[in-house]
Specification:
globular, alpha+beta
Length: 138
């Protein structure tokens, strides 16, 4: 956190390009990750990234709306990447044994990669570039 910053978490994500990558599912590993994340921040981030994606909902007859010509035309639709996940708003009490939940969490944490974009501090507005999946926090 920058000096004088009191509420720099969570950083907002502005996605320019993201990809879906395969990662082997391990339920035990994914369940152990729950203690290391702030679940509400994760849900808020997924929702904010989802809201920022272009509307590509089907038109009558099944055709898709064209992507907008802004920066978001580079984005893959979150529906295509299945980021509009099955994660519930609240952490399930049985999360460690809930296979459907663990699969959805695994997907969001390990299979969605932000290739290019920006992380933005919610307090200061400072921007940190993401290039080739690596954020530059300098």
């Amino acid at each position: 956190m920058s000096p004088g910053t009191h509420n720099g978490f969570p950083l907002r994500i502005e996605v320019e390009q993201m990809e879906e990558v395969e990662a082997e599912f391990n339920a035990e590993f994914t369940a152990r990750m729950v203690a290391k994340i702030e679940y509400k921040a994760l849900i808020d981030t997924v929702a904010s990234v989802s809201a920022a994606q272009p509307d590509r909902s089907p038109l009558p007859g099944g055709a898709r709306q064209p992507a907008s010509r802004s920066v978001s035309h580079l984005h893959l639709s979150l529906l295509q990447l299945n980021v509009d996940s099955k994660l519930p708003a609240a952490l399930p009490e049985d999360y460690a044994t809930n296979e459907e939940f663990l699969q959805a969490l695994h997907h969001v944490l390990l299979e969605i990669e932000i290739v290019t974009g920006t992380l933005v501090c919610p307090e200061t507005g400072k921007r940190f570039a993401i290039k080739d999946g690596i954020p530059s926090m300098l």
